[in-house]
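The freezer alarm interrupted the setup, so I double-checked each line after restarting. Inputs confirmed:
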Amino acid sequence: MQKAAARRPFPWHILVFLAPAVLIYSLFMVYPLINSLRLSFYHIGDQNQTSFVGLSNYVKLFTDPNFAPFFWNALVNNIVFFIIHMVVQNSIGLLLAALLASGGRGRAFYRSTLFMPTVLSVVIIGFIWQLILNPLWGVAKTMLGWVGLESLYRPWLGLESTALQVVSLISVWQFVGIPMILFYTALIGIPEELTEAARVDGAGGWQTFWRIKFPLILPTVGIVGILTFVGNFNAFDLIYTMKGANAGPNHATDIMGTLFYRVFYGQQLQLGDPSMGATVAAMMFLIILTGVLIYLFAFQRRVQTYEM
Amino acid sequence: MAQNIKHPTAHQAHWGYRLRQSLSAFAPHLVLFGYVLIALFPIYLIIMNSFKERAAIFGAPFQWPNQETFSLIGYETVIQRSNFLIYFKNSIVVTVSALVLTLLIGSMASYALAEYKFPGNTLLAIYLSIGIMIPIRLGTVGILRLMVSLKLVNTLTALILVYIAQALPLTIFILTQFMRQVPMELKDAARLDGASEYRIFWLVVPLVRPAIGAIGIFTMIPIWNDLWFPLVLSPSPQTATVTLGVQQFLGQFVSDWNAVLSSLTLAMVPILVFYFIFSKQMIKSITAGAIK
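Predicted 3D structure, all chains:
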C-alpha cells in the first residue's frame, strides 16, 4: 500500500478523502472553540468591536458580586449533580448489569426496556417528571400512598433544599441505561475459565464478583466515570426544561450549563454578555479538560500496570 | 466438609438447596422487573392519560381510558395550535442530512487514515479525536459569531453543519478501527485489476456496513433530541425542531393538560418506534464492539 501511494506523483485521493472531514471539523468545531477561549480574554463592545483585557473577565467572574456568587453556586451544584450520578446512577447501572450478565431468561427484554428512557429527549423526560411530581396532578402523592408513605410527599421540585437532588435523580433515572449497557458488555466479555476457577475454589457469587469480575472491568469503570463527568459538567437541557434559565428556586438547581446560557444570553433585565459567556465556557472547558487528563494519565496508567 | 455440618439431614439439605436455587434464580428477575416498572411507568402514564378528557386525567389518573373518558381533544389542540408538522419536517431534514453527510465524510476520512501511510497520519488521527471528549457546546460563543458572519443564523444548514462537526470525531475514531480489519488481499486484487482508489473505497464501505449502521443509530438520537443548538442557532418558528418546538409549546400551554400530554406523546412516538425497530441491533452492536 505504501508503494501504491509512492508511485503516484502526488496522492490527490488522500486529500480528497480527508479534506471534507478536516474542513468541517476544523471550521465548525475547533476554530469556534479556540475563538471562544480567545474571546474570554477580550471585551466585546456594543458595536461588536473587541479589545484585549487580559485576565480581567476571569477576575470579574471570581470576585464581582454580580458573577462570583452565581459561579461558585453553580460549580458546587454541578459537583453535587456529578456525585449523585457517580454514586446512584453508576451503582444501579452496575447492579442491573451484574444481574443481566448472570444469565436467565428475558435478558433481551430487560436490556431493551431498561435502555428505553435513555433514547428519549431530555426535554420530554423533564416534562414527564414535572407532571408526575406536580402537586396539582397528585400522582406522586397517590403512589406514595400505595406503600403508606403519603405523608412523605413534598413539592420537592419547588423546595430549595431538595430541588437539586430531585433533578439529579431524574437525570439518573434517564441515563442509568448507559452505565448498565457498558458494564454489561464488559462483564459478558470476561472469559468463563476465570470465574469457573474461582467457583471451584469455593468462592460465592458475591466474592467472585468483587474479587475477580470487578477488577477485570476496571477499565470500563474508568470510561463510565469520565463519560459521567463530561456529560454532567456539560449538562443543560434538563434543568432548562424543568426550572428555566434561572434554575430556580433561587438558583438552587443552577449548574455550569445554565449559568453559561444565562450569562451569554442575559436574563430578564440583565443584558447578555458574550465575553463573560465565553469566560464561563472557558472555565467549563478547563474543568472538563482537567477531568479528561486525570482520567488519561492517572486512571488509565494504573489500570495498565494492574493488567501487567 | 464444613458445609455438610450446617445441614443436619440430607432431606433438609436438599430442601435448603432447592429453595436457595429457586430464590437465586428468582431474585434477579424480581429486581430487574421492578426496575423495568420504574423505567416504563412514567412513560406509560403520560401516553395513557393523553387519550383521556381533563376530568379523568385528574380524577382517575391510573385508569385506562374508557368510552366515557376517552378524548382526543389534546391532539386536536396540538395539531391546530402548534406547528408540529413543520417541526417534524425540520427535525427530519436536519437529522437525515447530518447523518448521511457524517457517515459519508466520516467513512472517507477513516478509509484514508486506515489505508494510507502519509506523513502526519497519526497526528491527524489524534487531532480528529480530540472532539470525542471536548463537548462542542463549549464553543457556542464562537459558533454563533461564525454563523452570524456566514449569515446562517435561523437556518437548518447551521444545525446540520454543527451536528456533522459534533459527530465526526467518534465516527472517524470507530470506523478507522473497522477499516483496518478489511483484508489487504481484496484491495490489492482490485488495484491489480486497475481500479481507482475511489472505486476501492466503495468496495470497502459495504464491508464495514454493520459498524456504519451502529454509528448511524448512535449519531441520530442525540441530534434528534438536542435542545441547545436549535435554541441558540435557529430558534425561529420556521426552523424549530421537534425538541425545541415541544419545549416552547409546553411553555405556552402549561395549564392545558390535554395538550401537554398529547404533545409529549407525539414527540415520544417517533423515537420509540425507531427504538423498537432498532433496539436489538443497537444493543448488539455495543456488546459486539466492546468484546472486540
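Quick read of the result. Residues 57-188+217-307 of chain A form a domain with the MetI-like fold fold (CATH 1.10.3720.10).
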